[in-house]
Amino acid sequence: MKVQILLFILFLLAQGKYIRTTLTMTRNNNWQYVSKFGMDIGVGDFSMKARLLRVTKEFEGKKHNLQFSIFIDEEWEQDLSSLSCTEKNKRAKLTYDLALPLDGQFSGDIVGELSQSVRPHVWYFVISDCNNLLNDHARVKVEITMRNEGRNHLSVEQMGLKSIYLVLAVIFLLGLGANILKLIKYFRKEEEVQLTMVWLNMAIFFQFLSMIVSYFNLTIYESNGRGLGALDFIEQALILVSQLTITCLLIIIAEGWTIQYSDFPNADIYIPIILIVTFLHLVVLGLGKISDDSSYKFSEYEGIAGLALIILRFCMFGWFLYNAKYLFSLTKAQKSIQFIYKFTVASSVYFLSMPILVIASKFFALYVRGKFIIGGTLFMQMATFLFLSIIFSTKGEYYRISSMSAVLPGAKIHSY
Q: Per the UniProt record, which residue ranges are transmembrane (predicted)?
């Protein structure tokens, strides 16, 4: 029931770049971040309007002048926390008077252009009430639309992702097709099913679907600035299923499945743990969606939610290492030891790739970080899938030490 509730929450939270948000202005917090947008080289545009919530008719026709300020990334990255509201706005590239009606009507549209000729920039949008004209805890609803040159709603950090998704989706599809042909050929020859290959192909299939969904969602996003909430949710769910599928496969093999024994591990142990890990991932993703448009966030792996995802990854890695260490202690054959060592190293690269990519992304410009992490993560997924496809489908070290021939009743017995 909890998982169903969380899935529903994630579905509602998924949204595009067209921003509709509500700010609570207080005496102590009268300068508030609204949104950010990465502009590519050229001229982009924006439009915004705002209205006051919870008002009475007695204020009809009256207005308060607030400030709508726009900061460039170079200035935003400076420490502004010690400055007063007015001093902060002096650092802005552009500041507009926002005549906010007190009767709950929308203000007039503030429309403008932002240009950059040397490199892309991330622009930050702020609303402030430096003179504290509004009542304490006044709620202001803001709607803002931002576009790059050519009326493109994609922020600069999202540009190029469609090409990455499309190219890798084709590669994943070709790999999946090749693996399925190998499975069929193996079944016809040996009269048994390679469960490891079936498991691996499930992970590849879900990853392939996630990239297709991402491609179409970005296409919709590009035109309307909103995307489609359902597609965003489905994309995250497919990525999660793919990653957990491959993670569980690595952990179970490290425990000794197909190497020390052929029976599938005790489901009473693994299923509850997998469900708990899945639920925790969903909780973290839900929390991450709440802060999706935070000023500091350029990928799923930043902020508290990002830290939680990294911690979960390290927990799974610790479980894998524990199993691998125990498997080493049980293994006597030199060939098996050599394979387990190679398998442990390759799997460790997979588990550590995401934290390493997140750390390495800090050395790149803000608008590059998201693409670097997404592209790097997908590349490591592809490398892992390729590595496992090779060892599962060729008569190499794994095939010689594997006990998979005894997995299914009636399977042929091989001797080497």
A: 164-184, 196-216, 236-257, 269-291, 303-322, 343-366, 372-392
How much is the average pLDDT of 42-69? 84
Distance separating alpha carbons of residues 75 and 94, to the nearest angstrom: 12
Domain residue limits, the chain: 19-147, 161-406
Q: How far apart are CA 9 and CA 168, in angstroms?
A: 30
CATH number of 19-147: 2.60.120.680
Count of beta carbons in the 10 Å neighbourhood of residue 168: 18
Contacts of 28 (CB under 8 A, 6+ apart): none
Q: In the prediction, which pLDDT does 124 show?
A: 94
Specify the CATH number for 161-406; select among 1.10.3470, 3.10.450, 2.115.10, 1.20.1070. Answer: 1.20.1070
Q: How far apart are CA 261 and CA 258, in angstroms?
A: 5
The residues near 138 (Cβ < 8 Å, ≥ 6 apart) are 24, 25, 52, 54
**Pairing between strand 94-101 and 63-72?**
antiparallel
Asked if 104 and 52 touch (Cβ cutoff 8 Å), the reply is: yes
CA 216/CA 182 separation, integer angstroms: 30
Sign of the C-alpha dihedral computed for residues 215, 218, 223 and 224 taken in this order: positive
Residue 347 near residue 320, CB atoms below 8 Å: yes
The answer on pLDDT for 412 being more than 50 is: no
Sign of CA dihedral 227, 231, 233, 237: negative
pTM of the model: 0.79
